[in-house]
Protein 1
Amino acid sequence: MAEALLALRNIRVQHGATTALEVSSFDVHAGEVVAVIGPNGAGKSTLLRVMGLLQQPGSGSVYFRGEQATPKNSLEMRRCMASVFQEPLLLNGTVYANAALGLKLRGLPGDQIHKKLWPWLERLGIAHLTSRQVRTLSGGEAQRTSLARGLVLDPDLILLDEPFSALDAPTREALLLDLQEILAETRITTVMVTHDLQEAAALGKRIGVLSQGKLLQLASQREIFTRPVSEGVAAIVGMETRIPGVVEQTAHGMTTVRFNGGTARVRADFPPGAKVTLCIRPEDIDVNHYLGERNCPKEKICIRGNVLRIFPSIAHYRIAIQAECGFVSALASKSSFTELSLREGDDVSASFSLAAVHVI
Amino acid sequence: MELIWQGIVKAVELVFGGDSEVWAITWLSLKISASATLISLLLGIPLGILLALSRFPGRAIAVALVNTGMGLPPVVVGLFISILLWRSGPLGFLELIYTPSAMIIAQVVIAFPIVAGLTMASFQSLDPNLALQLLGIGASKLQALWLLCKEARLPLLAAVMAGFGGVISEVGASMMVGGNIRAQTRVLTTATVLETSKGNFDIAIALGLILLALCFALNFLLTHIQQRGQMKWPRLS
């Protein structure tokens, strides 16, 4: 594999007695977009600050283009990168002055700044705002200014720290779409951290999962969302149904798992007696009124339970079911939900195909 | 009322009649307090920035000392500087007691914590991530520091105003370490005290008016700079 554009090795950051970040290895390759997800306080911002050479780790090294970052060469390296934060963090002044700041810091003459900056101002839809004072901008306009300030630097690496989380939903959607296009066109290497799965899925080709300062998994988007390596990752990536079970027998790559209230034959390879967890995404689970064991299709696994709660949202209903084996969470489209006319307390059967099950 | 009216008439005569002694006193006041303010800025701004932006052992104590220093009673400063500079004191060999230099030293001790404290507050009012953001678009550390100073310039001007205002109107320390010697260390405030005690209210009023006018002129100028381009509060109805 080609040499990584940016590589972290044995990074450790302490905040007093607690370890804020502990990452043994993290490679970012040229041209890729990596999203890092994790709950608040997982160390996402710290990770990005270490990558951007804005914070020196307690121990470990950062390599940029194969060269180790030191206090001596860090300015030179930082000038190949750009950071965009959750808050736009603009200076008092006009939109133009703010967007031009990075180029000005590099000593570029005014006419060249103008030539470079203008296309970006137009691309981000803020060209008509150039002479506006930044304090009069809306949140979305300010964040676009901040993005322009970073993108105009033509960085080798752009680091986005929850760039959309301070925006309202429509503004966020619009900016997310724009950024998706820009990243696809320019192929700027990008690392974005976010706590929002949708944003991560929209931008990240590879996704990392960070929790309590530790990088739990770093893999392709598909892999992360369907084959988490641990229950912790499964929880973070939205595999809400996690059924504990014990392996009964294994043969030819098929494993029979017994759980409270049933068995399942799934594609996995675990020794008999092993304690495992069956993980299923909510959108892979169908819910029907319980009509007896026989009504379960052969190729499916069915679990009987009671509807605990129903959470309505715009396009979907989230149905929480209390079953013998634990808690099952399903997502039903509005139309299918209306057809079922489910109510809390109803006796239901939750079914899912074998392919939807991921065993940990 | 007669007393006040006569005083004001006499004061106007003194001010606009070109009384050389009054103007000499004014000039000396300005020189001493401006020097003291300038030195306080040179010492206080870096200390304030350091206290605001960095973490080091003993920082909490330093911050507490600066905050205490912001409210130092001038007479206490006068007392300590007098003892230090007294002929038989530890710094007596410098022969500074009852000189303008001694007054400058005392005024620096008064103004420097004010400048440091307000500088610290003005930097702490900036978003803590702003410095990171500036570094994150390729600013060198020096460039980032300069941009932060520019961003905090409005509250920094308040530090200048408070520092100068504190020392030009201060009387206790100047009296004690300067001695109020005519044509040498007599400044607006000490002269006002002296003339009032002698019952020369006209001269005292004249000196007082000049002091007020000076403070007003300087603050008007700095306020004008400070408020330029400031966001207007919406009118509340």
Note: Residues 11 and 60 of chain A are 4 Å apart (CA to CA).
Protein 2
Amino acid sequence: MKLSHIISLLNADILVGQAVDDIEIDSAFGSDMMSDVLAFDVENTLLLTGLINQHVIRTAELLDVKSVLFVRGKTIPNEIIEQARNAGICLLHTDKTLYVSCGILYNSGLPGCKRR
Amino acid sequence: MQEEITLEPVLKETCHVTKGDFASAGSVSSGFKRKAKQLGLDTSLIRMLAIAAYESELNLVIHSLGGDLTMEIYTDRIALISEDRGPGIPNIELAMQEGWSTAPEDIRALGFGAGMGLPNMKRQADNFSITSAPEGTKIKMEFVLK
């Protein structure tokens, strides 16, 4: 699924990122626990989370996760936006909850990712 | 003439990890990952190495009194070694169970301490060994270069 389609489905804002038409997403993972994210195969995965801190971006960077979506309409501090920009991570933002966001994406055909 | 076998690593890097320094957690792993990329290693191997290093680094920050993380690069494998100064793991069998965690609430609030660290490290590596005593814990992981 194209990232641009995900943005449209979730009515999301783009905080960092360009050429979202060119980014292909194969699966999604929703979690506020970065420890759990580390245990899954997240290649070409969109990470959805309501956890807002620098470790989200650091975890994404280490796992080569290229797209992160913050849910529940939280305000994203500028330093996290800058960190994502420096790491080359596409950063999105939606008012929808984690549950609803995941439900919409799953219902639209985007599968979950597998355990390593 | 018999070929000389070297047991010394081609490259070795050791970095100190400070107890409780959560703000810096991940910086050593990022450095190791960068080094592995520079060496042109396979992408999936780099990711496994990065995950194992990050889990080790987080454990050192969250659970240990401080320690060192070492990456050794050999011609046929990469070794990742975590050595701390205590306080040791009282029950390794329990610690290896997914979901078993002694991480404090403030660490969980930051998104870590789900009890996945040690089992995940074991899953990434081709070889995994752990020894622990009150004086310190040593974990060695090896990744075979194919």
Note: Residues 3-107 of chain A form a domain with the Udp-n-acetylmuramoylalanyl-d-glutamate--2,6- Diaminopimelate Ligase; Chain: A, domain 1 fold (CATH 3.40.1390.20).
